[in-house]
Amino acid sequence: MVQAMRSMRDVLPQEARSFRAVEEAFRSVLCRFGYEEVQLPVLEFTELFARGVGESTDIVEKEMYTLNDRDGDSLSLRPEGTAGCVRALNENGLLYNQTQRVFYSGPMFRYEKPQRGRYRQFTQIGAECFGFAGPDVDAELILLCHEFWQAMGIAQGVRLEINTLGSSAARAAYRQALVDYLTPLRGELDADSQRRLESNPLRILDSKDERTQAIVAEAPVLESFIDDQGLAHFAQLQDHLKALGVPFVVNPTLVRGLDYYTHTVFEWITTELGAQGTVCGGGRYDGLVEKLGGKPTPAAGFGMGLDRVVLLYEALNPDRADSAVDVYICLTEADMMPMAQAVARSLREPAGLRVRVHMGGGALKKQMKRAAGCGAGWAILIGAEERAEDQLTVKNLLTGEQTRSATAAAIQALLDAHPGLA
Ligand code: HAM
Questions:
Q1: Burial of 396 (C-beta count, 10 Å sphere; 0-12/13-18/19+)
Q2: Residue 406: how many CA atoms within 13 Å on its side-chain side?
């Protein structure tokens, strides 16, 4: 049998339910903040990511799925959503002289070493804001995540780290100072950091290698290169977060792996998932619109890794109600199907109850096993007597209690038992 490519994951029904719960909760928070959805292509010209994300980032250097199409154009599956979002809004005239707050959701692709929480196809929900220069929008993006964690009941499992990278000029000056400091010590750095010294020296600050960390601890600090305006932006962001009641820690070594960031960067991190603990990352990227051919436009956003949020949600909610079906309808004769479907409809439509009608016949005992097996809370039995007297037998599958009553009354009792779904 042909198999899936490694780490291009199948999300099977049980996990898909958690995905949906997480995605719907997040969409609902985004919509309540007035963000609008955009749907963007999965395939773009490779150049977009090379220019947008940065030639020397790990993502562009070694993680993209790139192919040539029949015209010889180099295309890549999107490894992230920000560059494509900027391209789309700019190309459609939605950035110049106006502000935007948008979100997108969908698969991203990176050829990374697979492990729990790190996949080659994964799903992000991203939010991006354009035309806002102040720290208030940085704070709003963070608040939005904070409210989402609370809505999902997983706020206790994540912490927020923030940092500032200053303006691009400050970052360039710092980069030079870092290279000057590290070059004589090159031989003592870990292999990855040696490679990054030319391509992406700021990422060396992120190294997990102990010896490199000790060297980095003595390195010049980014903060001393940041101008007054940059420092004021960061101070105001912290004031906003305190006023909004969002706890945070400042992590001066947080630099993020994509080249476009300026000023604010942030990550939400959990300790529940081992090595792949970053569930969301983002920040400000004031230079990117211009770099991709638009007019200078301040911008900020984040990407949330849904696969990791789902793992976190499941880890923190082991007892979550986890079933696709509320009511399972059993019928003893095939010609009872119209009655079964009519009953199902009267439960589905008003209350959104999830109702599965048994198919394929078989003994009632077998049908009841199916009802229990799919996790339904209730079974409805339609037999010869029920049909003759226009009644239903309803069994509560948790308590085993069973009652027979007129069809209309039985339906009403089930609807009354699920007021939250209406
Ligand atoms: P990123 O940090 O590369 O940022 O990705 C954002 C999130 O996507 C990560 O925090 C992680 O949860 C998830 N993620 C990344 N790679 C994988 C993977 N291989 N498997 C599973 N989950 C993964 C960005 O992509 C930026 N576009 C975020 C952004 C938007 N910044 C500003 N606006």
A1: middle
A2: 3
Query: Among the atoms of ligand 1, which is closest to the Cα of residue 120?
Result: 19
* pTM exceeding 0.85: yes
Round to whole Å and give the CA distance between 213 and 222: 15
What is the CA(281)–ligand 1 centre distance, in A? 6
Pocket test for ligand 1, best of 78, 103, 137, 258 (most atoms within 8 A of CB): 258
Q: Coil, strand or helix: which one is 270?
A: coil
Residue 422 has pLDDT above 50, yes or no: no
CA-proximal residue: ligand 1, atom 2 (nearest): 281
Task: Return the residue whose CA atom lies nearest to atom 18 of ligand 1.
Answer: 118
Q: What is the C-alpha to C-alpha distance for residues 324 and 183, in angstroms, rounded to an integer?
A: 58
Task: Give the type of residue at 167.
Answer: S
- Residue 80 · residue 59 · CB < 8 Å: yes
Three-state secondary structure call for residue 109: strand
Listed residue (27, 240, 234, 245) closest to 146, CA to CA:
245
How far apart, in whole angstroms, are the C-alpha atoms of residue 89 and residue 357? 46
Looking at residues 56-73, what average pLDDT do you find?
94
> Residue 57's closest CA among 205, 254, 263, 199?
199
8 A C-beta contact, residue 401 and residue 365: no
Q: Find the mean pLDDT for residues 186-209.
A: 90
Average pLDDT over residues 88-112: 97
Q: If you count them, how many residues does the chain have?
A: 422
Write the pLDDT tens digit of every residue in 285-311: 999 999 999 999 999 999 999 999 999
pLDDT band at 420 (very low <50, low <70, confident <90, very high): low
Distance from Cα 104 to the centre of ligand 1, integer Å: 13
Angle made by CA atoms 413, 418, 419, in degrees to the nearest 5:
105
Nearest CA to ligand 1 atom 26: 303
In the structure encoding, which two tokens stand for residue 28, read together? Answer: 């609902």
Nearest C-alpha to atom 14 of ligand 1 is from which residue? 305
Please compute Rg for the chain using Cα positions. 27
| 266 band by pLDDT with thresholds 50, 70 and 90 | very high
Ligand 1 atom closest to the CA of 278, numbered from 1: 10
Which residues, judged by CB distance below 6 Å to any ligand atom, belong to the binding site of ligand 1?
Answer: 80-82, 110, 112, 118-119, 122, 124, 126, 128, 257-258, 278-283, 285, 301-303, 305, 307-308
Strands (E), 140-242: 159-164
